[in-house]
Design goal:
Distance between the termini: 25 Å
Shape: flat
Number of domains: 1
Strand content: 5-15%
Helix content: 40-55%
Radius of gyration: 18 Å
Number of strands: 2
Number of helices: 2
Strand order of the largest sheet: 1-2
Largest sheet: 2 strands, antiparallel
């Protein structure tokens, strides 16, 4: 898994007026890394901890997202072969 991959890519014709136009991503939105960091941030903010600042939560959320991306990338490269 690559954190720079798009979380919600929208693929379509870049120029609808041109029938020969190539397909492409026209609404890239957020990356998977940004999505995972946002989800981690939501979890961190749901804890009732008053001695932590938002910037610390944000840094921790990004670290958590990066760790998850790394773990998922490692998992993809070590998937067992399916019997077939």
């Amino acid at each position: 898994m690559n954190g720079a991959d798009l979380a919600f890519p929208v693929v379509g014709v870049l120029n609808e007026d041109n029938p020969d136009a190539k397909m492409g991503v026209y609404n890239p939105g957020m990356t998977k890394r940004e999505l995972l960091a946002g989800i981690a941030m939501q979890g961190l903010l749901s804890c009732d901890v008053e001695f932590t600042t938002f910037s610390i939560h944000a840094a921790d959320a990004v670290k958590a997202a990066d760790a998850l991306i790394e773990a998922l990338s490692d998992h993809e490269t070590t998937k067992p072969q399916q019997a077939g």
